[in-house]
Amino acid sequence: MKVISTNIGKATTFLWNGREEQTGIFKYPTDEPLFLSKIDVLKDTVIDRVHHAGFNKACYLFASGHYPYWKGLYPDLEWDWGMFGENLTVEGLDESQMRIGDIYSIGSALVQVSQPREPCYKLGVRFGNAKILKEFIDYGYSGTYVRILEEGQVKTGDKIILLKKSENTLTVKECFQIILAKEKDPIILQKAINNPSLPEYKRDRLKKYV
Are the CB atoms for 66 and 79 separated by under 8 Å? Predict the structure, then answer.
């Protein structure tokens, strides 16, 4: 895997249900390296810190390979890397192979895969269409958040190197599906509950389906 774009955003104001709100989802490529800190990406904008950033969502990665699919659905948008609010656009990222708990080096940083991205209404704001939320869920490839085990800099062109594969086989794709599925597959459900790298609050929510 390789980083093909580093992306940050500024606060963008929009109207929602008749009132002004702000979002940091409008991210665009930057030529500067990004510094991955324990709780966020330095110089990036995070408005809602209840649901974004923090230890388990310090940095968001999304695969460049998914872009052609979405460009086909939304050909009239002004496309650039960062469209999904990702800090790092990654070539070769595959959520069906990447496991929750995998540890990678990226640039001088050390990161661990923590959880899939669950879309909120602000993705609809970015795309100008609320139906993308269901489309994103149905597509099944969410990108992934990582926690930062060792802070460091990441730049375009940096390779993403797997250092340790999680012993728990729960993939990011499986985790995304089990969190959002109305009917929970019992085998995948148990893998998620037993995965120590999935945030505890996520596992606690899943336990009620056992």
Answer: no
Q: How many CA atoms lie within 13 A of 158 on its CB side?
A: 22
In angstroms, the CA 134 to CA 194 distance is: 28
Neighbours of 133 (CB within 10 A): 17
- Comparing CA positions, the residue from 81, 86, 89 lying closest to residue 4 is 89
Per-residue pLDDT of the chain (210 residues; tens, 9 = 90+): 999 999 999 988 888 878 888 888 999 999 999 999 999 999 998 877 777 788 999 999 999 999 999 999 999 999 999 999 999 999 999 999 999 999 999 999 999 999 999 999 899 999 999 999 999 999 999 999 999 999 999 999 999 999 999 999 999 999 999 999 999 999 999 999 999 999 999 999 999 998
- In one-letter notation, the amino acid at residue 91 is E
Q: How far apart are CA 65 and CA 69, in angstroms?
A: 8
Residues in the chain: 210
Could you give the angle at the alpha carbon of 166 between the alpha carbons of 160 and 169, nearest 5°?
A: 115
The whole-model pTM stands at: 0.94
Strand partners, 44: none
Candidates 126, 88, 116; CA nearest to 188 is 116
- Nearest CA to 164 out of 102, 210, 72 is that of 102
- The Cα 127–Cα 50 span in angstroms is 22
